[in-house]
Structure formats: C-alpha cells, structure tokens
Design goal:
5 helices; 3-stranded antiparallel β-sheet; 5-stranded mixed β-sheet; alpha+beta; single chain
Amino acid sequence: MSDLQRLTTRYVEREDRIRLTGENEDRGVVTLWLTQRLANRIIGPLCRWLESQAQDSQAASKPSPRMQLEQTFEQERAAQALVPQPPVQPEGTSTESLVESVDVQRGGKGVRLVFKDGQQKILATLTFSSTLTRQWMAIVLGQFKAAQWPLAAWPQWMVNVGRRPEAGETKWH
C-alpha cells in the first residue's frame, strides 16, 4: 500500500480514463486508472463532505442559494490558491493498476480515499484536507471537461467556478 504524497491527475484520451500518477514517501511511483463510472461515484461523497464542512450546519443540510454561493466562493478561493507543481511522471518501473473501488473515509478535518483493485487489495491511499479536496476536485472537474464527459454528478456550486485547472498536481504534508 502507498500513502501518496504528490499526485498528478490527467485524462488520457487513448485510454478514455483518468490517470492518477502518485509518488509515495519513498519516492516510489504508482499509476492508478479511474474509469468514468468510478470517478462519478466518488464525486458525490466528496462534495457532500465539503458541504458538511460549512460553518452553518443548517446551511450544509439544506442546499439553499446562500449555501450554494458560499460553496462556490470557497471552491473559487481554493482553485485560485492552487500552485502549479512539476507533474509526477509515470515510470517504466511504476506499479500500474485499474482501480475497481474507492472507499471514501470522511472525518471532521480530512477525507481519505482508499483505492482498491478487483480483489479488494489496497493499491494506494490519499489523505486530503478540505482545501486540498477542493483543489483536487477542481482538477478532476477539468479532466471531465477535457474528456467531454457528462457533468451530471457535479453540484452546480462546483461547476459554476470560473477557474478550473485542466491538469495538475496536488501536494500535501
């Protein structure tokens, strides 16, 4: 299992999938492939977790216009704070796997994604703060647009954000 420290997220047209290329603490590289179906399934839980982080718990439970506006503002602020980093490059020696399932473990201060293969073996994990979740989701949304995949799973407050990175990296720790 790899706890990823750096991550590059890109849509690869030839594969019609999103490629996650991550680097763990030992600088080992892992390549994970996400299908559109699986990527759509993790959008909802991540966005609901972000909504639950709202200061006003009542606003988080009822998607009011005010909550939508606040979420759009927070998303815009996180996307603007994203600092481009050199991408993690897939290497010939890197582990490459098709992700079959993702466990989304939500907590008060962070969210953890556990990527698994078809035998439920853990391939890698990612731990994000609220801001990093927002930044990564902006990148993933950019990849959906690059792929011309439907945006039906995305909440309007995220789609409304003006600046969307098309490819990039999220770095944490």
